[in-house]
Design a protein that fits this description.
Blueprint (H helix, E strand, L loop, with lengths): L20 H9 L12 E2 L3 E2 L18 H25 L3 H33 L13 H4 L3
Helix pairs in contact: 1-3, 2-3
C-alpha cells in the first residue's frame, strides 16, 4: 500500500491514533469533556476535574498553567482597544462614563472567556496527547504488545 505526501500515514493503533483536535476544542470551549462531550471539565470556575464524571477520562495530566490567562488578555485587548477608539472618536463620551463602561465590559468579557479558554487548552492537550494524555505503557501490560 502506497501513501501520497498529501495523506500522511496514520496508524490504526488506538494507543497512537490521532484524536481530532477541532471537535475536542469545541467541547473544551463548552467546558465539557473532550473525549465524550458530556461530562463537566471544570468545577468551581477554573479547577479542572481529576476525571470526567461521565466517561472517566483522566484529566490530572493537564498543564494549562498561564496559557488561558494570556489568551484571554490577548483576545480582550484586541476586542476592547479598537472598540474604545471607535466609541471615543464617534461619540465623545465623558471620560468617567467611558472608563466605567469599558472597565465593566473588560471584566465581564474576561470572566466569561477565561474558563472557556482553559477548557479549550486542556482539550487541545488531550487531542494532541500532550503531558501524559498519551497511553501510559508502563501501567497497561496489554498496551506493551502493541508497541
Amino acid at each position: 500500500m502506497t501513501h501520497s505526501a498529501a495523506t500522511p500515514y496514520l496508524p490504526e493503533d488506538p494507543l497512537t491514533a490521532e484524536r481530532p483536535a477541532w471537535p475536542a476544542i469545541r467541547r473544551g470551549l463548552a467546558c465539557r469533556c473532550p473525549n465524550c462531550g458530556e461530562g463537566a471539565l471544570l468545577h468551581s470556575y477554573l479547577k479542572v476535574n481529576a476525571a470526567c464524571p461521565n466517561c472517566g477520562e483522566d484529566f490530572s495530566h493537564q498543564r494549562a498553567d498561564d496559557g488561558p490567562a494570556y489568551l484571554t488578555i490577548l483576545i480582550v485587548g484586541h476586542l476592547m482597544a479598537p472598540l474604545m477608539l471607535y466609541v471615543f472618536v464617534e461619540f465623545r463620551p465623558d471620560p468617567a462614563v467611558m472608563a466605567t463602561f469599558f472597565t465593566i465590559g473588560t471584566a465581564v468579557l474576561s470572566l466569561v472567556l477565561l474558563p472557556r479558554l482553559k477548557g479549550a487548552m486542556v482539550a487541545l492537550q488531550w487531542a494532541k496527547r500532550m503531558h501524559g494524555f498519551s497511553a501510559d505503557l508502563s501501567q497497561d501490560p496489554a498496551a506493551l504488545s502493541h508497541v
